[in-house]
Structures are given as structure tokens and as C-alpha cells.
Specification:
alpha/beta; Rossmann fold; 7-stranded mixed beta sheet; 9 helices; binds S-adenosylmethionine
């Protein structure tokens, strides 16, 4: 399937990245673990209408479709045709008939107001170019009393990213990574400002010790899109500066090494908010 979406360069890079990864994305059970927690917390029930933002290989839509049953309906949207192809294959294999997949930009959706009971976004909010605007848009699609749920990484998560941020600051470069959603307060404020109430944030820690080599492999330079930033801030550096920054990055990691390896924090904020029951029409 070809990508027929008109995407800007930032989103096209993300779509290409995930289409390249799509064949092996499900090899690890990491994303499905997080998605499963999100669904568990979201209290999905039979007959509900669910929107899954950035559905990828369909992990959330499949689990949600099995819960909502034949009276319910699940819509999954994504900008990566490769990821959606995987989702389609899995959905067909399971014979699920209550799922619809759309190749679409989650920041430019056009669903009727008040049409979903739940909107979920697993492992993807960070990629939105304008997170506050995206949350306001999705708020409009929820029925009054409906619930949004997303997961976000703490700003302490992923040692490679934390160390890279510190190193490149010396070069006058700011890498945002998880910063927009990186604390409980930030997640809370994002939902509150988008019009949600009854906001609940459940932090969970999934960290582990990793080897120095694994930590060093977390350096992606400017070859990987930077969440929420385009062009990639590291593209301002010369190749010599970039090579030097990588040397400094590896030296910083050496310092963090212990007998057990390097601690790689992966703290996740499972974040939920409700659209007020007396909310009328579009937010
Ligand atoms: C880490 S994957 C998460 C996929 C899935 N939600 C999961 O839990 O496994 C991130 C997904 O976000 C999608 N994505 C990024 N930006 C998007 C956007 N603006 N609209 C729709 N999908 C987007 C990517 O194509 C990719 O499939």
C-alpha cells in the first residue's frame, strides 16, 4: 500500500521510520505491555465506540475490539501505511469485523463531535507536532463523560536520551524528547488546559539495567526524527561537532556504569481525563 497522505516533512519522516520498522515492531512485547495497561485503566466496556490515535500495528484496536464486541466499534488512525498493513493483516487473521483503520494524521482528523466513548493514544503522543492543539481536537470527538487516556514517558526515562540532552546543551542545542509530558504536573496541565476534568495520572516504573553497549546504541544523532522538533535540532551541528558530541555522550555513559550495568529508567505516566458530562458540542 502506498502512502497517499499529504504529510509535511516532519510527519513524512515519522511515517517512513515506522513503515521501515513495521515488520519487526511486534517482535518485542514492550509496546503491547504498555498498551494493555492503558486499556486496563481505561475501563472499556461492551458496546463502546473507541478511537485509537496512532494505532500502529493495531495492538490497542485489537484488544479494544475484543472488549467492545459486535455492538461496539473501534477506529484506528495512523500516518504509516506500513504499520497499518500489519494491523490489517492481524485484524483479518482474527476475523474482527468491528474495526476500521484509517490512514490519517491524528492532528487533522475530522470525526463528528461527541462520537467516541474513549480515545486512547499509546506510545505516540510525543510525536504530535502540537500536543495541546491535538488534545483539544480529540476532546471535541469524545462524548460528554467520555474518557481520554494516553501514556507519556517521564523526562527521566531512557538514559541515552537524558545523557544526549545534557551533552548537546553545551552546543546550544535543546532536545525536547519527553519534556512536554515529562512530569505528572505537565500531563495534568495538558489535559486540564484541553478542557478535561477528573484527571488521574498513574506513574509506573519499568526500568532495568542495560549494558554499556546497549546504552551507547541509544545515540541516534540526527538520523532519527526528533519528537515535536523539525528540522532535527542536531542538524545545526557540523559533522565534526556531532562526532565530538557522540564521544562526550559515550564518556558520560562510562561514568554511569556500575557492576550491574547502567540503570535505564523507564517511568511511564498513564494519564486519563474525562470530558465534562455537561459539555455541549465542540470544545
Ligand atoms: C511507537 S508507535 C505506537 C503504535 C501503537 N499505538 C502502539 O501502542 O504500539 C508510534 C506510532 O505513531 C504513529 N504516528 C506518529 N505521528 C502520528 C500522527 N500525527 N498521526 C497518526 N499517527 C502518527 C506512527 O506512525 C507510529 O505508528
Amino acid at each position: 500500500m502506498t502512502n497517499q497522505l499529504e504529510l509535511n516533512d516532519y510527519k513524512q519522516e515519522i511515517a517512513d521510520l515506522y513503515s521501515r520498522r513495521s515488520q519487526t515492531y511486534d517482535n518485542s512485547d514492550w509496546h503491547s505491555q504498555i498498551a494493555h495497561r492503558l486499556i486496563d485503566y481505561a475501563q472499556i466496556g461492551p458496546g463502546q465506540h473507541i478511537l485509537d490515535i496512532a494505532t500502529g500495528t493495531g495492538i490497542v484496536v485489537i484488544e479494544a475490539a475484543q472488549i467492545v464486541g459486535s455492538e461496539g466499534r473501534v477506529v484506528g488512525v495512523d500516518i504509516s501505511s506500513g504499520m497499518l498493513d500489519q494491523a490489517r493483516r492481524k485484524i483479518a487473521g482474527l476475523g474482527l469485523s468491528n474495526v476500521e483503520l484509517q490512514l490519517a494524521d491524528a492532528e487533522a482528523l475530522n470525526f463528528p463531535a461527541n462520537s467516541f466513548d474513549r480515545i486512547l493514544c499509546s506510545s505516540a503522543l510525543i510525536w504530535m507536532a502540537d500536543i495541546p492543539a491535538a488534545l483539544r481536537l480529540w476532546h471535541g470527538f469524545l462524548k460528554p463523560g467520555g474518557i481520554i487516556g494516553f501514556h507519556a514517558f517521564a523526562e527521566t526515562a531512557f538514559v541515552g536520551g537524558v545523557v544526549a540532552q545534557k551533552v548537546v546543551e553545551k552546543y546550544g542545542i535543546t532536545l525536547a524528547f519527553s519534556k512536554p509530558t515529562g512530569t505528572v504536573e505537565k500531563c495534568h496541565d495538558l489535559l486540564q488546559q484541553a478542557g478535561f476534568e477528573a484527571i488521574e495520572i498513574k506513574p509506573e516504573q519499568y526500568g532495568s539495567y542495560i549494558s554499556l553497549e546497549q546504552a551507547k546504541a541509544m545515540w541516534t544523532g540526527s538520523s532519527h526524527p526528533a519528537p515535536g522538533q523539525f528540522p532535527h535540532p542536531l542538524s545545526q551541528l557540523s559533522s565534526e561537532q556531532l562526532a565530538q558530541a557522540k564521544v562526550e555522550f559515550e564518556a558520560e555513559l562510562e561514568v554511569l556504569k556500575t557492576e550491574q550495568g547502567i540503570w535505564n529508567d523507564v517511568t511511564i505516566f498513564f494519564t486519563f481525563g474525562r470530558k465534562p458530562a455537561d459539555s455541549l458540542g465542540f470544545f
